[in-house]
Specification:
This protein is 66% helix and 5% strand. It is globular. It has one domain. It is mostly helical. The longest helix is centred in the N-terminal third of the chain and has 29 residues.
Length: 275
Amino acid sequence: MRNLAWLFIAVTGATPFLATVLGYGGTLFLMAASMLGFAAVHGTVRYGAKPIALFLVAGFIVGNFFEDLSIATGFPYGLFHHLPVAGPKIFYVPIAVGLTHAAAAYLAWSMGSLLLGRADQDRRATGAIAIALVGAFVVTGWDATGDAAAATITRGWVYPHGGGYFGVPLTNFLGWLLAGFCYTLAGGLCLRGATVATQPRSWSLQPSALLFLLAMQPILGLALPDRVVQDPSGQSWHSLALFQTETVAALIGPIFASVLAVVLALRTPKDGARR
């Protein structure tokens, strides 16, 4: 099954190259499905099928709750809305976006655990809280590598009043920290009764590889011709400046987290066996 996880990682990395064929909605759905497939396979190997299924359902429910709440009230992300190009919805939220939150919950959980020294072996609630806290920063860093392009250039969702981060307000990222913590913790609490199976070093490298490929995506935008784009508030931005800024965010955020997790994995070949 670990080889199947590598396949899902490869599909996730290749998805942006299919955008001209699939369109925005198809690309978003394929990426969400491949990330979710990775989470299901990678998590089943570690925790078992039923616990990881509960984890992903919890992530989906909590992630959709915060999306719907923000669209209706402005909390926690700020007032925004999804456009039809993002695909069919459940209430206000495209299905693909909800699936992405479920997958992001597992990515946050696995990266948080690895960065804390495979802390998922800690059965205490405080262990789950620590993982969720670290994981929330990881997925918020990932969001900073793509939300501006999605909101201002491809217009999968928009903030009507714009924002300082190329059409995205600060509240979006504060909301990701809160929602990321909550859905990662909700999922993590579903795993407390699961048997945590010992895994080799290759298993611990996989979440880092997935996060690295996700964070590399704004670099592709650097190859595109520069053009002036407007966010819904009417503010103009240079697309090249947007992609350069997202690339910087990738380097100092999720790519750094990926490299750090790999270094820790190389120092800890197996669970509980440090060199």
